[in-house]
Amino acid sequence: MLKVYGIKNCDTMKKAFVWLEANGVAYEFIDYKKAGVAAGKLPEWCRKAGWQVLLNTRGLMWKKLSEAQRADVDEAKAIALMGEYPSLIKRPLIEHGDQVSVGFDAERFAQTFKS
Question: What family is this (predicted)?
Fold first, then answer.
């Protein structure tokens, strides 16, 4: 079963939920803000997907950060920022087997998750 990590009220998450349910894909949803699992999982997710993929630099939370926080971001700084501000993690993040998929794209979902 897929593990889908994200934030329940996120519009992109809602699109992913609709797609998964419409295509009969079973999943477990984990709200990483409420469950507090993000910080412990971030090193593994970065290793599998890359911190540049995980770090959401287009969202409102990124824009709210100070210039100093956004400057000179490397993997260690990205992990620290995403651990402190889970909203900076691109959504959805899906664990499937030993793979990690980040973001919603209907075509990619169809290739990856549809049986």
Answer: Belongs to the ArsC family.
Enumerate the β-bridge partners of residue 31: 6
Helix (H, G, I), strand (E, B) or coil at 49: helix
Integer angstrom CA distances of residue 53 from 25, 46, 56: 24, 8, 8
Cα angle vertex 13, ends 114, 95, to 5°?
Answer: 55
Residue 94 exposed, middle or buried by CB count within 10 Å (0-12, 13-18, 19+) = buried
Mean pLDDT per 10-residue section of the chain, whose length is 115 residues: 93 96 96 83 95 95 96 96 94 94 96 82
DSSP letter at 6? E
Domains of the chain: 2-113 (3.40.30.10)
pLDDT of residue 33: 84
Positions marked active-site: 10
Q: Work out the end-to-end distance of the chain between its first and last CA atoms, rounded to an integer number of angstroms.
A: 12
pLDDT of 115 reads 61
